[in-house]
Amino acid sequence: MTMRMTFNEAKEKNFKILEQYVPIVDRVHGDKHPEFHEVRKLFESINDKAKKAGSGKPDLDEEFSRLREVTNNYTVPADVCESYEAVYNMLAEVDRAYHG
């Protein structure tokens, strides 16, 4: 049986990379994939709430629900780079940990 990652573990593992990747992916792919503009806004909201909560668990149900909707459950478009794919994979991992 595998141990599920906690939200704080997923945050520690992924947020520094997401903070770097999300703005770049938005700039590179935002024209062809305008939905990524909303992904960026949602991640920024999640990141802000997580920082304010410290080691507590912030209320992110609305943000993750909207992320799943906007990204079609983190489905990676066929015409994007590995960084775009990495962002969706990391966000999905954080989402699973949050709801785990």
Cα-based radius of gyration, to the nearest Å: 13 Å
The topology string of helices and strands comes to HHHH
Report the principal-axis shape: globular
Beta-strand content bin: under 5%
How does the major sheet shape up? none
As a percent range, the share of helical residues equals over 70%
Folded structure, characterized:
Helix content is 70%, strand content 0%. It is mainly α and 100 residues long. It has one domain (7-99). The chain is globular. 26% of the residues are buried. The mean pLDDT is 95.
Task: Based on the model shown, name its key terms.
100 residues; mainly alpha; 70% helix; globular
Topology readout:
Layout (H helix, E strand, L loop, with lengths): L6 H23 L5 H19 L7 H10 L11 H18 L1
Helix pairs in contact: 1-2, 1-4, 2-3
Q: Short description, anyone?
A:
This protein is mainly α.
